Amino acid sequence: MRVVRDAWDYLLDGANWTGDNKLLDLLLQQLLVTFTALGLAMLVGLPIALWLGHLGRGGFLAINISNVGRAVPTFALLGIFVAADSWGWTGGHFPGTAGLGPYGRAGAATLVALLLFALPPIITNAYVAVREVPLDVREAADGMGMTGWQKFRRVELPLALPLVMSGLRLALVQVWATATIAALVAGPGLGRVITDGFVRTRYGQGIAGAVVVAVVALLLELLASLVQRWLDPTSPSRGVRSSVRKDGMPVGGPMVATAADPSAPHQ
Amino acid sequence: MTAIASAAPAAEPSCYSRLTNEWVCSAYWTDRREEILDALVQHVAITAVAVVVGLALAFPLALLARRFPWLESSIMALSTGLYTIPSLALFPLLVPFTGLTATTVVIGLALYALTILVRALLEGLRSVPADTREAAQGLGYGSARLLVRVELPLALPVVMAGLRVATVSTVALTTVGSLVAYGGLGNLIKDGVTSNFRAELLTAAVLCVVLAIALDVLLVLAERLMTPWARGARS
């Protein structure tokens, strides 16, 4: 248990928190990477998924993209990106280990990998969310003479919001985890404290880094669930749709294996 | 690239030499066959043990959660929290207890699998229609026989869906075990990253995905064998 005390000492030593490439610096870097990637993934994924859901097309793709994302190891993809610094068609510099401003070494490679791993939960949940809006509600909207856009904007989107949000929450957890793994390819973020500690057999430092990463992960998840509850128009006393919403995604369907995802909404 | 690649057969260095560093290189597969197979075997072993242990732990937990509703919310909260912790952080947290061993990786992965499987088991048991349950009770089934003969078979599709998710993600997560030198194919990836060895990287990555797909297909087939009654109804 000496390592535990080492970890404790490491965390208590202020010198390990402030300064270049120290805990606070790396924490901010990882938060920056995480939210940049999440933002990009939302920009790319949400419009496509919501629109496909509105049209009711492309469901097979939208749902199975999650299964693909799950099968590809983050570490492997990061490794390939980092080693791919001389593909002819990118002019020899994509992405490789090249630094990218505040995103640090292998910043571009990390951002692309994070973006790719954030997309599946966002796309799948947003698509399912819009598709799950009950048919009679849609028909009522049609009957009121709403145009396609009005129906989407005023009926489908508000009703889909809780599930879209839980997709974003899943993506946030996933991106934070992936950003940590970036350290395995000497990328940016707090994971560096962990890998560095293990490479140099300073296990106390490695464990200390792990504690910080885990605590921030739990805080992010907590924060996300609070935001989700706050934004959910259907949550508190309006019981109309609660029976549908309670389970989030349908379980047991052959394609929506995401239902067993532990972070799926379950309150 | 073209000039060096065309010269490669004449010059001795193979397609995985530092100069050429091809992504796809059959000489690498033949020369390092043992090493690749060892990594693959370790990967499969770690994944399999982790999922089996996860399932063995999830089963009693799910039954407990079903029996005592007050326990369910805490089990759920705990598993959500656990799932939130990145794997690269979970393994170090286990190291003080289990050291730099394969056990560390197996326990960590089993915990992740557990969080998925408890949910799947609960959802599955909940999906059993109440009237079916009542009919069985009316026929004099006790709670143990009801569970084994009626509820579990009917819960199987949902449970298997969860098991597939758990297995596929465990295959991917095993690679992170390379942090403590027990990562199966992840060890190859780690080596590939540090020495900028493309053939090794791509081979390990592709094998990971192929392994995940293979195990997934295996579980689908197993499910079909175990649920002969569903065959006609399946669309």
TrEMBL record, chain A:
Q: Give the principal location in a single coarse category.
A: membrane
**Places the protein is found:** Membrane
Is Transmembrane helix tagged as a keyword?
yes
The portions of this protein that span the membrane are 31-52, 72-89, 109-130, 159-186, 206-227
The record, for InterPro entries, names: ABC_transp_perm/SBD, MetI-like, MetI-like_sf
Among SUPFAM superfamilies, the record links this protein to: MetI-like (SSF161098)
Q: What are the ABC transmembrane type-1 domain coordinates in residue numbering? A: 27-224
Keywords (alphabetical) are: Membrane, Transmembrane, Transmembrane helix, Transport
Identify the stretch(es) annotated as Disordered: 234-267
User: Per the UniProt entry, what is one GO biological process?
Assistant: glycine betaine transport
**Gene Ontology cellular component?**
membrane
For membrane topology, the record states: Multi-pass membrane protein
Pfam families recorded: BPD_transp_1 (PF00528)
- Asked whether the keyword Zinc-finger is assigned, the reply is no
UniProt-listed PANTHER family: GLYCINE BETAINE/L-PROLINE TRANSPORT SYSTEM PERMEASE PROTEIN PROW, POSSIBLE OSMOPROTECTANT (GLYCINE BETAINE_CARNITINE_CHOLINE_L-PROLINE) TRANSPORT INTEGRAL MEMBRANE PROTEIN ABC TRANSPORTER PROZ
What this protein is called in its record is Unannotated protein
